[in-house]
Amino acid sequence: MLRVHFTAKDFARTRFAPRPAPLQELHAALTTAVTQSGGPLFAPWRGRVLRSLPAGTGPLADLVPAGRPPSFLDVLGDTVADGFEQIRATSPGLVRSELERVYGAVPARGWIRGLHAGDETAWRTLHRAQRAAYETVLAPVWSVVQDLHRAEFTRYALAVAEHGVAATLTGLAPGSRLHEGVWEWPAAAPARDVCLDGRGLVVLPTFHHPAGPLLQDAPGHPVVLTYPAGPGIPPTAEGPVASTEALAAVLGRTRLAALRLLADPHTTTSLARALHVSNATASSHAAALRSAGLTTTTRAGRSVTHQRTALGTLVAGAWPP
Question: Where in the numbering of this chain does the HTH arsR-type domain appear (predicted)?
Answer without folding.
Answer: 245-320
